[in-house]
Amino acid sequence: MQIRRVSFAVCGGLAFVLVTAASCGDGEGPRFTGSVATVSGSQLCVGPSTSSSSITCGSLPSDAPTPKVGECVSLFARGSAGEMTWTKASLSLKVPDSDCGTAAN
Questions:
Q1: Which pTM does this prediction carry?
Q2: Which of 12, 50, 69, 88 is the most buried (most CB within 10 A)?
Q3: Are 28 and 76 in contact (CB under 8 A)?
Q4: Statement: residue 17 has pLDDT above 60
Q5: How far apart are CA 37 and CA 46, in angstroms?
Q6: What is the distance between the alpha carbons of residues 56 and 17, in angstroms, rounded to a whole number?
Q7: Cβ atoms of residues 60 and 43 within 8 Å
Q8: Class assignment of domain 31-102?
Q9: What string of H, E and C letters represents the secondary structure of the chain?
């Protein structure tokens, strides 16, 4: 009987750890991998990208690194079309130029 209680406690503790350790990510939607087309104020546009054959723009979060025009990036965004904000974490990624060779045309 005592072994059954210990087993239940261990299983319950493990389930708690798994549930609380689960990450829901960085609010990611599609990933936009392509070259930076424009940077203007707090807005950055990428395209064409792996997720869109046209240019896609989003806001830059405060204190985020700002990539240069022509730089290869792989960005996630929060929000919906027309109101997207690139995630700070994805703006910090170093992406090789070869990754932008596969962007949609």
A1: 0.67
A2: 50
A3: yes
A4: no
A5: 5
A6: 39
A7: yes
A8: mainly beta
A9: CHHHHHHHHHHHHHHHHHHHHCCCCCCCCCEEEEEEEEEECCEEEEEEECCCCCCEEEECCCCCCCCCCCCEEEEEEECCCCCCEECHHHHCCCCCHHHHHHCCC
